[in-house]
Amino acid sequence: MADPKGFLTTPRQDWPRRPVEERVRDWDEVYVPGALLPIISKQADRCMDCGIPFCHEACPLGNLIPEWNDLVSREDWRAAADRLHATNNFPEFTGRLCPAPCEAGCVLAINQPAVTIKNVECAIADRAWEEGFAPPRPPDRLSGRTVAVIGSGPTGLAAAQQLTRAGHTVAVYERDDRLGGLMRYGIPAFKMEKHHLERRLEQMRAEGTRFRTSTAVGRDIGADELRTRYDAVVIATGATAWRELPVPGRELTGIHQAMEYLPLSNRVGEGDLETSPLSAAGKHVVIVGGGDTGADCLGTAVREGAASVTQLDIYALPGAERDEDTEPWPTYPVRVYRLSAAHEEARDLRTAPVADADARLFAASTLRFDGDAQGHVRSLHLVEVDERRRPVDGTGRTLPADLVLLALGFSGPDRRDGLVDQLGLELEPRGTIARDAGFATNVPGVFAAGDAARGQSLIVWAIAEGRAVAAAVDRHLTGGSALPAPIGPYDRPMVV
Ligand SMILES: Cc1cc2nc3c(=O)[nH]c(=O)nc-3n(C[C@H](O)[C@H](O)[C@H](O)COP(=O)(O)OP(=O)(O)OC[C@H]3O[C@@H](n4cnc5c(N)ncnc54)[C@H](O)[C@@H]3O)c2cc1C
Ligand code: SF4
């Protein structure tokens, strides 16, 4: 803490976003390039070094936040990068994509805006790459043990990097043609440009991790074959089995799942397609589902040139501040009004003439879809619901809809490749892969981590899962492990 009064003299300042009119005309990240570094040391100086850092507790990775705030306030970037990489394999991912539960737990946030922890993390990560503080770290010697990691999302990548650095020979199997999991084909480039992913993959290749793309385990290669060929197997296949909306008219064309829509626009960005076959250009778009996946659809539809975009949220409009009775500090308040970059764009561009402020209609429940003579969706009927989801009389309304995107969350791992059945994996009642306190499944030598076992979650949890399962696998292979395990399989976010 270079200035012990920093939190009294410096107001919070976030990384500024580019003007809405400018950024919706491209797919680059929404932030002003180069505008973070000049402000970030003063922002880090707002950290009070409070003594009991709840931010550190609230971060699933156990990031050493007060330590690197201090180092950044003193502009010791090399030491800050070392402290950050000690707990986080991919801070440039979390620095851009994490919802920052750490900031909800910041002691300063009790009565004034929290330290911009996520921005500090991003600045350290970006500076580390610029200055060459994040070189490949290949192992000094090899263990002679082999590990197959199935899935190349943040869980699989973190597990693979940890195990490779520990000296094991690691191959990552990925069914998609490119690596990265949901960070590749789910999350749009305006939230995180893909070159951040490519740079880490290059680092991992240089360390010795091997990658096999376009290989679905269970379909292109038998799960048992992997078990025979490798000393251990880590399943990190995510939880992408989507939830359905079983209302009349669902069978009409023009109604798609968010994860049918988002990958196509990401493929346009990758240069695989000229335009998306599901492009929103010129269409009236309705997104059913009020979460982050829906917001990603919103930002994408706006950039594709939709005629209008409306997002439906089943929950009532939340308050501007946390409810201290139900979600007190230092927990992460779920029910607080947040204006994401996509919502800001929708608000400023008035994409949803029917909505009050941004593009959202709250407490809205879809009743049915109507189509035209060709069987294509043309409208969506909805009704307002109370807190127990009972329809409120006289609130029915109809929205024009040529493209409907369902963003209702995910129920568990996608079982279509046969991996779960081939191995005879036990599942939890909610469909996720069951595992014991050491991340081991019921099949000897097979471990499970990330969304596949935890259920739909966040990148910060996925990286923490990857690090923890790596420690468990290392122990299984060698009898002990010096690798860190930031979480256990049953750990959950801090709640009341
Ligand atoms: C649209 C969207 C936006 C999101 N935005 C954010 C965000 O902004 N911030 C945030 O923190 N979280 C976000 N999330 C959640 C986050 O992306 C996930 O929690 C995280 O990616 C889970 O990581 P994972 O590695 O466990 O699984 P995934 O990222 O799903 O990766 C699993 C990988 O396994 C591969 N795979 C599956 N089966 C097989 C098989 N049989 N053989 C070989 N490979 C296989 C898949 O192709 C995939 O690449 C978002 C999720 C979605 C859907
Ligand atoms: S990973 Fe997320 S919770 Fe952890 S310090 Fe970074 S922004 Fe905060």
Features:
496 residues; alpha/beta; Fumarate Reductase Iron-sulfur Protein, Chain B, domain 2; FAD/NAD(P)-binding domain; 5-stranded parallel β-sheet; binds flavin-adenine dinucleotide; binds iron/sulfur cluster
Structure description:
- The protein is of the alpha/beta class.
- The protein folds into three domains: 6-131, Alpha-helical ferredoxin (Fumarate Reductase Iron-sulfur Protein, Chain B, domain 2), CATH 1.10.1060.10; 146-240 and 411-478, FAD/NAD(P)-binding domain; 244-400, FAD/NAD(P)-binding domain, CATH 3.50.50.60.
- The chain has helices at 6-9, 20-23, 37-44, 54-58, 65-73, 77-85, 91-97, 101-104, 117-131, 154-165, 182-185, 195-207, 223-229, 258-270, 292-304, 341-349, 419-423, 451-454, 459-478; strands at 146-150, 169-173, 210-212, 232-235, 241-242, 255-257, 284-288, 308-312, 360-361, 364-371, 377-384, 397-400, 403-406, 410-412, 446-448.
- It starts with 5 loop residues before the first helix and ends in an 18-residue tail after the last helix.
- The model has no long low-confidence stretch (mean pLDDT 97).
- The structure holds flavin-adenine dinucleotide and iron/sulfur cluster.
- Iron/sulfur cluster (SF4) is lined by residues 59, 61, 63, 65, 94, 98, 100-102, 117-118, 121, 460.
- Flavin-adenine dinucleotide binds next to helix 10, helix 15, helix 18 and helix 19.
- It holds the Pfam family Pyr_redox_2.
